[in-house]
Structures
1.
Amino acid sequence: MAVTFLGYYAERQSFYFSKYLAKEVEMGNFRSGYIKLDGYLNTQKLKVTGRVIVMAGVLLFLLLVSVSDTFAADYTGSGQFPAGGWIRWKFTGTSSGYEPRANISMGRWHTYTDANLLKVTSNEDIKVVVTSFGITTWYGFAYICDIYGNCDNSTAFSNTYKSCELDFNTYFSGSWSDAEKENTFMHEAGHCLSLAHRDGVNSIMDPDHSSQNWLNEYDKVLVNNRY
């Protein structure tokens, strides 16, 4: 999935670069030599100078930096649970009205991404705790610890994960719809899978989308890139 996404991104940038070159030719900015591009300008010979080579190099560099920064900004760090195996999760706390929603929510990550989530009754990696934590600044919280004992900080987020406690505060959720409950479970599970907040997009990781209970394609790509 990651390769597919990068290929699509690069294809888009190549298209826009080709349009840029066409405009430069139209304006008469290229004076000597010829180059033939695949795709958009496949049959057109373009007069070029060293300026084109420099511009192509700059655009390629910006493309690579942009892709790298985009991925980096979408994760809490470089850490994660070990890829390829089962990520075991356990439900504890208030089950009535919540455990079915947790089952559905964790099931969506398991079904639609490469993360293998398995519900267990012991020896869990992710512990889902549903109870009233009283008045807090959050509805849900993901508390991540790494294999070295670091917890809830940039160091923990950059190492191999040992555990994630997914806390759901029922103090606020008495009148919530099923979709809102699922949104909180899915959002915090995304943090447990190493995803950061993503604002302004139709992502389960956007804190402002309180009733979204589905994954967009980029949510899936980000998890598949790790697992």
Note: The longest strand covers residues 161-169.
2.
Amino acid sequence: LVVKHTNAASFPVGNSTYNPVDLSGGPLQDWRVRVEDAITNVTAPFAGNVARAIQRQWHVTPDSANPVPVPGVALTFHYNDLSDKGASFDPNKDVKVWHYLGGAWEPAWAAQTPAGTPGGDRSVTASNITYFSPFAISNIDAPLPVSLMTFTGKRLGTVNELKWVTASESSNRGFSVERSTDGRTFTSVGFVTSRGTGGNSSSVQNYSFIDANASGRKWYYRLKQEDFDGRTKLSTVVVLSADKNGTLTVDGVYPNPAKGALSVRLQGGAVPGTIILQLTDMQGRTVKLKSVSVDAGTSTTATIDLGGLSAGQYHLKAIAPDGTASETITVVKQ
């Protein structure tokens, strides 16, 4: 189903049951929406969530012929928690909206209590969506890992400030903050204990860390999340530099060559706002566009889904809010 919206639109989709999607915010453009009566992308860690999920998978995408959406899109998903639920789904418990990106499920929004009455028609909303398709809904008590929503950094005078946000945590001891000067060899510069009770949380948690002892002119940071059982997981890398002088740069693209998804490290320029990542083929045709919100002078990592692209070389550049562009980087799709 394709619908063009101005401020808000409803997509009356459904197969065996009625599962419409409401959309608000974002630019005037066409949107394509469909729903499946099963969760088809069953990968870890979501594999353990399927029985506790609504057995629907929504696909919401901007039409490729129109501009990429800007941050601010809100999606509301409707379902019936009797007819649409998995075998272990509990209508009386809170849920979370999930998004499938780069071969894995990630939280699209914080945990919430669905609108409506348990045992009937319900709805949940995820706001400030910047990338799309597919989406699913599950109980928050499913066996989920620590869900890192954002990890950013900023140079503040003579110190480096790092901030990160988690959507949920399970058995999380905390985060080791690791620093490198070459992007390859990392050492721990501090540890931040989990804010969740006993390392567990089903709500958004905000963290920050100040590195006051960083010598040199350029630094690479990552988080090593540590469980109580000794398991660890590394975050993406944030790059900070003392020599940016307000210039938008692409500080890293990995993996390259890439198969499913490409991670892009961005350093914001002097003006905050929305940066557009543009991927073009060797004939100069735009094949992917993605918008990313970046504060002035901060570093962040964005992901571009390469699904559907043919193997070969492509050109990537970042376009700042004032229209200036970064250097062009060649990436290879396997």
Note: Residues 171 and 229 are 8 Å apart (CA to CA).
3.
Amino acid sequence: MMEPIQELSECDRTVYCPSPSPPPSPIPYTYPIFPPPPPRQVLIALRYKRVRVLVNIDCKWEATYEDVLKAARAVFPKLPADNNKICLETSIDIFDCDHYVTAARAYITPEAWPALSLQFGGATREVEIRTRQSKWERFIAAFK
């Protein structure tokens, strides 16, 4: 049976509960355990010499330059192990002052990679892989 609430005087600032026992504590809510989100998948068309391969790169946020090199080495095992001997190249659009668009090929540096959009309008960007040879390697290859 509930006790009636006592009427407070003007000077009394204390709030009284209807019963002397403390209010019941809330039931602890356990959050359901969900599996972590799957890694983001990025499709890139890699091209080395005359072979073009569509590669799916699993990454947490965005595909880094190193992720692309790792995927390229998995697909093309003959690539050199030294990153300095590998260049990535893609097509870009250059806008000039007169609002004309020129398509051109450009090398991609590791610093410029984050600004490069890999997918645009449902299309996938093609990245061409080139290997740098020393002058002596080119000289010897010319005589083979």
Note: The two ends are 104 Å apart (CA to CA).
